[in-house]
Amino acid sequence: MRSTISTCLLAIGLIGALPAVAEEPAKNLASIHQKLQADKKAIVANYMTLTDAEAARFWPVYEQIQTDQGKLEARMQSLLQSYAADYRNQTLTDEKAQKLLDDWIAIDLDYAKQRAAAAGAVTKALPGKKAARYLQIENEYRALVRYDLAAIVPLAR
Question: Which of 115, 90, 86, 114 is nearest to 100 (CA)?
Fold first, then answer.
């Protein structure tokens, strides 16, 4: 599972960097993002082995979680695009760096709130072990995304 998720996440990491570096059109990025989300859903479906009744309860919860995560990902992408522009143009000031750090921390706090809400919703929809499995998949996915971002985002200068 790790190699499949890693491949998807490398592409996600590149998506975050592409708008700032390559100036790719937004519609191309949107289609790539849709493909990655479909791949993620296939990975989740493969590892969850849900009964029909569990699937009926779980998939609407999953879709809501992905929608909520998408909003946070959009905020993070905007932050990374802003940073990349300043990095590329060598216009990052101490004040702008502090604002970016404050925004980054706020996004991280919102991710934590979203994960807590997601955990509550998933544990209501699924038995304990299956809920834990899904939350582990999401945690691994998030960890790999963060790792990939750390690898491609240059240090402030």
Answer: 86
